[in-house]
Amino acid sequence: MKLFKKSLAVIIILTALNVKAQDKTLMNAFSQSYDYEAIKKYDAAISSLNTVYNATSYEINLRLGWLNYAAGKNKESVSFYQKAISLMPAASEPLWAIINPLTKLENWNEVEKTYLSILKLDSKNSTANYNLGLIYYYRKDYLNAKKYFDISLNLYPFDYNNMLMSAWTNYFLGNKNEAKTLFNKVLLYSPNDKSALEGLGLIK
């Protein structure tokens, strides 16, 4: 029994030392990646993390998503961010991050899905509602654009972008009175605003 206890103690100590060594190696790899990033050597930063890569590590996948994006490797960036999202499905952090490479790839359908995922986690997020409204606005889907612009406008009623885009959306939907009111509010925020004056000029 004593021999067993001694053996068990040795195993526990060796395991603890191994974990400690692994933690130090991981920390060094992250630290090195920051040093390389600071001098814009993104490929070297990526390589430093690849030496300790673990597919189940949220932190490594998130970091590699950012570094690949910074290096202009947008497809690779999306792949790492997707892994981070699957590892932490309740986190909005990787969802916001993946929008950057998706935008560079002009993958608007995935950008749309990502904003919808963010809103499932945070339905009153002004930025997500506004940006989703923009996507629908430029598709000329004004009904859906209004739905999301309205939420953002209610949260920030005197925000320039919210007022202006809501004004134009209402104009294209034929809601002339609402559009006129909003264009005039834009002028309170930005006197002589060209877009607001243009909109008012179109309303008879």
List the helices and strands and how they pair.
Layout: H1 2-38, H2 42-50, H3 58-70, H4 74-87, H5 93-104, H6 108-121, H7 126-138, H8 142-155, H9 160-172, H10 176-189, H11 194-202
Helix pairs in contact: 1-2, 2-3, 3-4, 3-5, 4-5, 5-6, 6-7, 7-8, 8-9, 9-10, 10-11
Quick tags:
mainly alpha; Serine Threonine Protein Phosphatase 5, Tetratricopeptide repeat; 2 domains; 11 helices; 0% strand; disordered N terminus
Give an overview of the whole structure.
This protein has 204 residues and is mostly helical. The chain folds into 2 domains: 13-111, Serine Threonine Protein Phosphatase 5, Tetratricopeptide repeat (Alpha Horseshoe), CATH 1.25.40; 123-204, Tetratricopeptide repeat domain (Serine Threonine Protein Phosphatase 5, Tetratricopeptide repeat). The protein has 11 helices and no strands. Helix 3 (58-70) packs antiparallel against helix 4, helix 6 packs antiparallel against helix 7 (126-138) and helix 7 (126-138) runs antiparallel to helix 8. The longest helix has 37 residues, at 2-38. The protein starts with a helix and ends with a helix.
Question: Could you tell me the strand content as a percent range?
Answer: under 5%
Computed CA radius of gyration, to the nearest angstrom: 25 Å
- State the end-to-end CA separation: 96 Å
CATH topology of the largest domain: Serine Threonine Protein Phosphatase 5, Tetratricopeptide repeat
Q: Return the domain count.
A: 2
CATH superfamily annotation of the largest domain = Tetratricopeptide repeat domain
Low-pLDDT runs of 5+ residues are: 2-21
- The secondary-structure class comes to mainly alpha
Helical residue percent?
A: over 70%
What is the count of β-strands?
0
Which H/E pattern describes the elements? HHHHHHHHHHH
- Tell me, what's the shape? elongated
Report the CATH architecture of the largest domain: Alpha Horseshoe
Report the biggest beta sheet as strand number plus sense, adding barrel if it closes.
none
Q: Count up the helices.
A: 11
CATH C-level class of the largest domain is Mainly Alpha
Average per-residue pLDDT, rounded, comes to: 91
